[in-house]
């Protein structure tokens, strides 16, 4: 009160107006640089470790890029379908690791490649010799476990006659394979190894029977909601270019 006693009401009004503009401007800058990041459980590329931290090969690159670009962010892991929907609907949201398929090109803004694209195989139990040496065209009577709405799911549904059994989590598909509830499981070699380790099983329990290269489109990317600030994406792109030249 003693400070304000020397100011007239007009001066006070100007003072409070300037304070409001200053703080609102500060919050606006923070809002512009805040990025919502979503991913899925897809070891070893992106997954939650035993300490509850989201880690993995892709996560390491994403965090390096965002920190270098001085962008505030939070990463959340969801089942793939939910993560994909959030990235499509929520502005300033980025999803990784995601394949840039023809169907998805116009749904997002893209930065590619994030990491080298892994190959996808149809794995079978090593004990299922009756499934050996078959081709995709011979699987019309067989069932393949896939992640719902991922590239293997889309490819198999539109290009083969196989029976597709979709789940939201890869570990669910792995358990189905081990229990004999499905004939094959679509997976990368890296992810299959992680599933085997997590269950404490022998690494010879499954074999990669059929490579489905057509279901592994390149590249593997970061994809941004269409309403994401272009300036924010440009900052990340600059850091990606620098990282490639290191």
Summarize the structure.
With 246 residues, the chain is α/β, with parallel strands linked by helices. It is built from seven helices and twelve strands. The strands form three sheets. It has a five-stranded mixed sheet with strand order 4-1-5-12-6, sandwiched between helices.
Which key features would you list for this structure?
246 residues; five-stranded mixed beta sheet; single chain; D-Maltodextrin-Binding Protein, domain 2; signal; Solute-binding_3/MltF_N; Putative ABC transporter, periplasmic substrate-binding protein; alpha/beta
- What is the straight-line distance between the termini? 58 Å
Number of strands: 12
Q: Bin the strand percentage.
A: 25-35%
- Provide the number of structural domains: 2
CATH T-level topology of the largest domain: D-Maltodextrin-Binding Protein, domain 2
The averaged pLDDT comes out at 88
Question: Judging from the principal axes of the Cα atoms, what is the shape?
Answer: elongated
The helix content is 25-40%
N-to-C SSE series? HEEEHEHEEEEHEHEHEEH
Number of helices: 7
CATH superfamily of the largest domain: Periplasmic binding protein-like II
CATH architecture of the largest domain: 3-Layer(aba) Sandwich
Strand order of the largest sheet: 4-1-5-12-6
User: What is the subunit organization of this protein?
Assistant: single chain
Name of the CATH first level of the largest domain = Alpha Beta
The Cα radius of gyration reads 24 Å
* Largest sheet, strands/sense/barrel: 5 strands, mixed
Structural class: alpha/beta
Unreliable stretches, pLDDT < 50, 5 or more residues?
Answer: 1-7, 11-18, 21-31
